[in-house]
């Protein structure tokens, strides 16, 4: 076991029992986070990104069956932990922020109340001490006039400022792992860039380890150090950000890269959307889940889930074809 390992997920499977059907949301995911990491989990809606991290956080309801070979945070085994111990870890060791901060904030309570509540729940501080720390935290996440902002209500904050409050609340207990689930999806492009910059600063200056969940590969380019590409409950490809952007191997990763919105000219149009829909996880196909949308799919792809093929110490991909074979196929298509 590596000493600097923060999180280990080994062969995680999460299944929901609902309406007499089983939804296999996560089908054997393995990944890790090391000290200093910013890991992005990228994939279209419904690929299992959020469920993967909610399984780790213990945030799923009774209808979820979570199984894994190993699930460790800071060398502590999450699988054998009691609900009480897990609750203690949440906030203190790992915290999660979501797309819509409004759902996590009580509209009738002032921002200061929310901050002080979190601080006092996890740390033995007096009200005055907690208030001081809260103001300091709000300042740290770039909220101007933090002291007077403490006495305002959530609706008096813009979307970007509310997301900053959520980040400040998550940071109150100095968790070692911050999981940000689509933190910028509801924000406009400029504010989105500011929040991503804030996450980067927290990683560099506060040694905060981060997992960023997003459907948009474009968002992670400037932030993530490593990327996991998810589809149909499986990791389809993983690699450093450079590997994924410079030498993507899986046809799904390549399709996602082609679909990055081209914003330089101010347009929000998708370059080349991926045709078709993600498979239902209630009845996932026996083979590669991308088979119905992949331009290189063949009969062989339907037979079983391909195993991961390693291309370097850091990059591997789940496709029956090698990178060279796929390059060749792409070249032939272009020549047509
Ligand atoms: N509580 C639940 N009960 C039943 N099914 C669920 C539950 N939560 C998620 N699912 C299903 O699990 C699958 C994976 O969902 P998940 O939220 O992880 O996707 P995602 O990749 O994060 O996409 P999104 O960005 O849309 O949340 C989906 O088919 C979803 O409908």
UniProtKB/TrEMBL annotation:
It is found in: Cell membrane. Residues 7-257 form the ABC transporter domain. PROSITE patterns: ABC_TRANSPORTER_1, ABC_TRANSPORTER_2. GO terms for molecular function: ATP binding; ATP hydrolysis activity. GO terms for biological process: peptide transport. The keyword Cell division does not apply. The keyword Thylakoid does not apply. It holds the Pfam family ABC_tran. GO terms for cellular component: plasma membrane. Keywords: ATP-binding, Cell membrane, Membrane, Nucleotide-binding, Transport. It is a peripheral membrane protein. Belongs to the ABC transporter superfamily. This is ABC transporter ATP-binding protein.
């Amino acid at each position: 076991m590596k000493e600097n390992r923060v999180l280990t997920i080994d062969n995680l499977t999460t299944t929901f029992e609902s309406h007499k059907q089983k939804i296999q949301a996560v089908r054997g995911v393995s990944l890790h986070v090391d000290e200093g990491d910013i890991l992005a989990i990228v994939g279209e809606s419904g690929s299992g990104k959020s469920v993967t991290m909610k399984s780790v956080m213990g945030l799923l309801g009774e209808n979820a069956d979570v199984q894994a070979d190993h699930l460790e945070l800071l060398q502590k085994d999450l699988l054998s932990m009691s609900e009480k111990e897990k609750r203690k870890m949440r906030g203190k060791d790992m915290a999660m922020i979501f797309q819509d901060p409004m759902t996590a904030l009580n509209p009738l309570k002032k921002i200061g109340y929310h901050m002080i509540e979190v601080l006092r729940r996890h740390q033995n501080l007096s009200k005055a001490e907690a208030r001081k720390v809260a103001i300091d935290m709000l300042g740290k996440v770039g909220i101007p006039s933090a002291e007077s902002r403490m006495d305002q209500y959530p609706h008096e904050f813009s979307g970007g400022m509310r997301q900053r409050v959520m980040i400040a609340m998550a940071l109150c207990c100095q968790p070692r792992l911050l999981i940000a689930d689509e933190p910028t999806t509801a924000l406009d492009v400029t504010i989105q860039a500011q929040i991503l910059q804030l996450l980067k600063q927290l990683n560099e200056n506060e040694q905060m380890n981060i997992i960023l969940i997003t459907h948009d590969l474009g968002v992670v380019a400037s932030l993530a150090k490593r990327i996991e590409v998810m589809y149909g409950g499986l990791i389809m490809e993983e690699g450093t950000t450079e590997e994924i952007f410079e030498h993507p191997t899986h046809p799904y990763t390549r399709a996602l890269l082609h679909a990055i919105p081209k914003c330089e000219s101010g347009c929000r149009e998708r370059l080349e959307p991926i045709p078709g829909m993600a498979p239902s996880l209630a009845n996932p196909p026996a083979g590669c889940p991308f088979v119905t949308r992949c331009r290189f799919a063949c009969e062989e792809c339907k037979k079983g889930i391909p195993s991961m093929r390693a291309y370097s110490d850091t990059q591997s991909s789940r496709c029956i074809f090698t990178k060279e074979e796929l390059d060749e196929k792409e070249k032939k298509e272009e020549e047509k």
